[in-house]
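Weekly structure sync - notes
Attendees: PM, LS, DV (DV joined late)
Agenda: review two folding runs queued last week.

Item 1: First target. Sequence and structure tokens pasted below for the record.
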Amino acid sequence: MGIQNYYGNLKEKFSTRLKRKEEEPAKAIAHPPRMHNLGEEIRLLVHSQSFEKAYSTAAPFLFASLGAWPGYWLFRGMDYHVHRSHIPLPIYIRQTYYQAKVVQLFIIMAGTYTVFRNASRLRLMNANRVAKSS
């Protein structure tokens, strides 16, 4: 009884260890890692309330930026007759291009600053509400 019982216990231990090793790869294959879905994360971000607030805050600046480019070119085109006697046309066009880019950049930076300033105010207001309610 003693020797047979000892060998029986050893056999059970080895068989359970072998079964565990065989089951682990099967589990890994049965449940592959989930793929990171960037499109879904962007969709959730765009449909969030905070994004909507930030976009509504920045919308006037975005539209002003879209109008600034052709508007500045139109202004510079109408003003060329004043400068044509001492600035050649290719140089004037290059100057207009860079100046229009700078105007557009300042408008976008002003919009970005406004969004971040309003977002930090909202965070501070929410933090104060949480502190007062506690």
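Item 2: Second target, run right after the first with the same settings.
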Amino acid sequence: MEQQKEVDQRYLVQQNKVSDGDTKPPVFAKVMRGKTGAFEGVSFIKSKDKATVMTITEANQAIEWATKKKPNAREYVTKIICVGQ
């Protein structure tokens, strides 16, 4: 029987450029944290394996940060996916 984890960390933040349509693979969020573990921002990387697996709250925080801080955010579709997708 599988043990329940205290923290439900099983989400990735995926981003696709609207103008690319389905021609290019998506990029994934890698969360940047300070020395104390505090959230500092997000970078988007091509490697799904190196992307940050996060809770739904962290994923929403990552999307909110990307939307506010990235000047070209409207050019991208950013969504939360489950790790297995």
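Discussion on item 2: DSSP finds one helix and four strands in the chain.
Action: LS to circulate a short write-up before next sync.
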